[in-house]
Amino acid sequence: MIRKLALAFFLMLSALPALAVNPDEILADPALEARARKISAELRCMVCQNQSIDDSNAELAKDLRVLVRERLTRGDTDEQVFDYVVSRYGEFVLLKPRFSLKTALLWGAPAALLLIGGTILLAAALRRSRPTPGPAPLSPEEEARLKELMREE
Amino acid sequence: MIVELGHFALVISLVVSLLVSVVPVYGVMKRDAALMALAPIGTLVVFGLVAIAFAVLTHAHFTSDFSVMNVWQNSHSLVPAIYKISGVWGNHEGSMMLWLLILTLFSAMVAAFSSNLPVRLRTLVLAVQGWIAAAFSLFIVLTSNPFIRLDPAPVEGQDLNPVLQDVGLAIHPPLLYLGYVGFSVCFSFAVAALIEGRIDAAWARWVRPWALGAWAFLTLGIAMGSYWAYYELGWGGWWFWDPVENASFMPWLAGTALLHSALVMEKRDALKIWTILLSILTFSLSLLGTFLVRSGVLTSVHAFASDPTRGIFILVLLLLFIGGALSLFAFRAGTLRAGGLFAPISREGALVLNNLILTVATASVLIGTLYPMLMETLTGEKISVGAPFFNLSFGLLMVPLLIVLPFGPLLAWKRADLAGASQRLFVAVLAALAVALAMYYAENGGPVMAILGLAAGFWIVFGALADLWGRAGFRRVATDQAFRRLFGLPRSAFGTALAHLGFGVTVIGIVAVSAFATETVTETKPGGVIDAGGYQLRFDGMKDAKGPNYTESRAHFTISRGGATVGDVWSSKRIYVARQMPTTEAGILTFGLSQLYVSLGDPTPDGGIVVRIWWKPTILCIWLGAVIMAVGGFVSLSDRRLRVGAPRRAANRGALAPGLEAAE
């Protein structure tokens, strides 16, 4: 309970020392290892608060790191590795959710807001900057009436 | 007895807050000066009472009075004195007390320094502050009372969470709350003005100093928190897009927009709707952050459901304050008359674009933070939205901001000449590209995109300098005269340039660390030498040590470069005795703006140890930039034009230096 409340502060969410990749996990091929690191950074440690498996020292994170490296060594593409992990753990494991109907709002919102807001503001700015048209010119009848009034003066 | 006194003071402060929130408003309606005069007096009394309650709680923590449940749960007799004090706000109840203390401090400052405000506006502002104070005192008294006693009193406490036993806890939350809660004043001004129905440039002049002060503190608070996380967590990360971080970052983004639009409103009587709306939104986001952090809803939707009292309470407050203020805004927005006209290409136009980008950035962080929660509540499906998402979406949104920022201060009000501004910034672009390329080659490569990122950072730095250069009139007037003009520039001009420059410095730091940082993970034994980041680290061996409330094993490293020893560092792993909780204390060695970060892993079976070493080039720029930004805010705040009650004196200054006013 107390620990849950202490979440308040910045750091609390990752309170345990996070110690990431161990030397024995590192692949011999640096290119493959670099890909593994990149993939690991996008996979969630399922038992942690908000950490990728790359940053976590939880047992489960280690298992998943090893799994990712196994798949890569077997020749999987990055996409296949993600597919495989998702098939085992569900979409929850992805820190960057895939674009789908359900996440359309999430992915689309920034662009949509920028577009809508920009259009409204631009329209308003153009309207504001245009000099306001003066009063309409007098009609012939009004002209005549005006002349008459002036003469009366 | 003392504890009961604090408890009593807290309850009385709630009662007085309720009085302040109701009686003076009645006075405003009845035009009764005596009733209105209750607002400032009552506000000062509330602050005094909350300060007493807070002092009592601090006393209980300092003297380790374990008969107080809050002390028992969050302290230990062996904790060093400084952490006994900072431990006051290292827990839910205490941090709500700090929140309330700072809120009432701001109210008291408004009461004390606003005698030149129209009396009705002042009364209403204080009343709105009173509503907030009453709501949060009620929350504390009913759901989070720190003064509850235990009988019999336990002999020993359960200890403060080891991660919080750091100077970071002493500094970070107070700074953060000064910012977070400081925006309440802007909120109250906006609500009061909407009730009154009078919103003009003078109003903006009163609001801006509060926005500026709150923003500068929030900037420092966030930077401090980031640096704390960096050195404490032991893996060199400095920003995690964690919901708790986002909760403080969103008010910062909205507050930055507020600051800029209040400027336009003050000078040109334009952007009224923006300013009022941002005043409301910024503090609403602070409240939302408090809700997210305090209700437990972040841990999981289920945690929230299992212990909903606090969550529901804050949720109701949230709906009342945000909903109420926004309804009032919707009701009154039609009566806001747009003031000064301006062409799309103008200083005003640039600031509107700035507001748009910052608001959309705030919204996308908000959506990203709440999306998993809403998704789970509505469909039961769990998804994650983490750092990779935010880096991509937020990063893309910042691109246009980075490009157009230096143009803003160079554009004239009303109608500006973009070609002229581009001409004046031409040198800045070239210089930025040259320096970025030089830095890229000095780092021996890295992703090519880093050149663009670095150039963007330097472009903002040089753009800010070009702004000052242009205002002083170098190359247009004689150099000595230009220097005289430079020193005669209003402080707000320096504030703007510093804040922008600081932002550029932060960008440079972020790009350089993301692109050029190296990581070395290896096993080593005593005597072993590790190559990392161009340095050689010799592991000299382990040593056991004992602190006041922990035991640790410390590893010593001697660091050399090209055969010459350049320094040494201790890196350790601690076990805090009371909670049997391990932490890592990274060893950090600073070279200029760069750092070598050494963290210990697990021992290996054959007597060695896993070591992780990061080389973080120019990482200090990230926080240095934030400090420069905050300094810019404070410099601007010290401009006499911005001081409350300055308008008359400002007119004199204008007469003394007519050329300067025109130059702005």
TrEMBL record, chain A:
<keyword id="KW-0472">Membrane</keyword>
<dbReference type="GO" id="GO:0046872">
    <property type="term" value="F:metal ion binding"/>
</dbReference>
<feature type="transmembrane region" description="Helical">
    <location>
        <begin position="104"/>
        <end position="126"/>
    </location>
</feature>
<dbReference type="Pfam" id="PF03918">
    <property type="entry name" value="CcmH"/>
</dbReference>
<keyword id="KW-0732">Signal</keyword>
<keyword id="KW-0349">Heme</keyword>
<keyword id="KW-0201">Cytochrome c-type biogenesis</keyword>
<comment type="function">
    <text>Required for the biogenesis of c-type cytochromes. Possible subunit of a heme lyase.</text>
</comment>
<keyword id="KW-1133">Transmembrane helix</keyword>
<keyword id="KW-0812">Transmembrane</keyword>
<protein>
    <recommendedName>
        <fullName>Cytochrome c-type biogenesis protein</fullName>
    </recommendedName>
</protein>
<feature type="region of interest" description="Disordered">
    <location>
        <begin position="130"/>
        <end position="153"/>
    </location>
</feature>
<feature type="signal peptide">
    <location>
        <begin position="1"/>
        <end position="20"/>
    </location>
</feature>
<dbReference type="InterPro" id="IPR038297">
    <property type="entry name" value="CcmH/CycL/NrfF/Ccl2_sf"/>
</dbReference>
<feature type="domain" description="CcmH/CycL/Ccl2/NrfF N-terminal">
    <location>
        <begin position="9"/>
        <end position="150"/>
    </location>
</feature>
<dbReference type="InterPro" id="IPR051263">
    <property type="entry name" value="C-type_cytochrome_biogenesis"/>
</dbReference>
<feature type="compositionally biased region" description="Basic and acidic residues">
    <location>
        <begin position="142"/>
        <end position="153"/>
    </location>
</feature>
<dbReference type="GO" id="GO:0005886">
    <property type="term" value="C:plasma membrane"/>
</dbReference>
<keyword id="KW-0408">Iron</keyword>
<keyword id="KW-0479">Metal-binding</keyword>
<comment type="similarity">
    <text>Belongs to the CcmH/CycL/Ccl2/NrfF family.</text>
</comment>
<dbReference type="InterPro" id="IPR005616">
    <property type="entry name" value="CcmH/CycL/Ccl2/NrfF_N"/>
</dbReference>
From TrEMBL, chain B:
<dbReference type="InterPro" id="IPR003568">
    <property type="entry name" value="Cyt_c_biogenesis_CcmF"/>
</dbReference>
<keyword id="KW-0812">Transmembrane</keyword>
<feature type="transmembrane region" description="Helical">
    <location>
        <begin position="493"/>
        <end position="517"/>
    </location>
</feature>
<protein>
    <submittedName>
        <fullName>Cytochrome c-type biogenesis protein CcmF</fullName>
    </submittedName>
</protein>
<dbReference type="Pfam" id="PF01578">
    <property type="entry name" value="Cytochrom_C_asm"/>
</dbReference>
<dbReference type="InterPro" id="IPR003567">
    <property type="entry name" value="Cyt_c_biogenesis"/>
</dbReference>
<dbReference type="InterPro" id="IPR002541">
    <property type="entry name" value="Cyt_c_assembly"/>
</dbReference>
<keyword id="KW-1133">Transmembrane helix</keyword>
<feature type="transmembrane region" description="Helical">
    <location>
        <begin position="394"/>
        <end position="413"/>
    </location>
</feature>
<feature type="transmembrane region" description="Helical">
    <location>
        <begin position="613"/>
        <end position="635"/>
    </location>
</feature>
<dbReference type="Pfam" id="PF16327">
    <property type="entry name" value="CcmF_C"/>
</dbReference>
<feature type="transmembrane region" description="Helical">
    <location>
        <begin position="35"/>
        <end position="57"/>
    </location>
</feature>
<keyword id="KW-0201">Cytochrome c-type biogenesis</keyword>
<dbReference type="GO" id="GO:0017004">
    <property type="term" value="P:cytochrome complex assembly"/>
</dbReference>
<dbReference type="InterPro" id="IPR032523">
    <property type="entry name" value="CcmF_C"/>
</dbReference>
<feature type="transmembrane region" description="Helical">
    <location>
        <begin position="175"/>
        <end position="195"/>
    </location>
</feature>
<feature type="transmembrane region" description="Helical">
    <location>
        <begin position="124"/>
        <end position="142"/>
    </location>
</feature>
<feature type="transmembrane region" description="Helical">
    <location>
        <begin position="352"/>
        <end position="374"/>
    </location>
</feature>
<comment type="similarity">
    <text>Belongs to the CcmF/CycK/Ccl1/NrfE/CcsA family.</text>
</comment>
<keyword id="KW-1003">Cell membrane</keyword>
<feature type="domain" description="Cytochrome c assembly protein">
    <location>
        <begin position="89"/>
        <end position="295"/>
    </location>
</feature>
<feature type="transmembrane region" description="Helical">
    <location>
        <begin position="448"/>
        <end position="472"/>
    </location>
</feature>
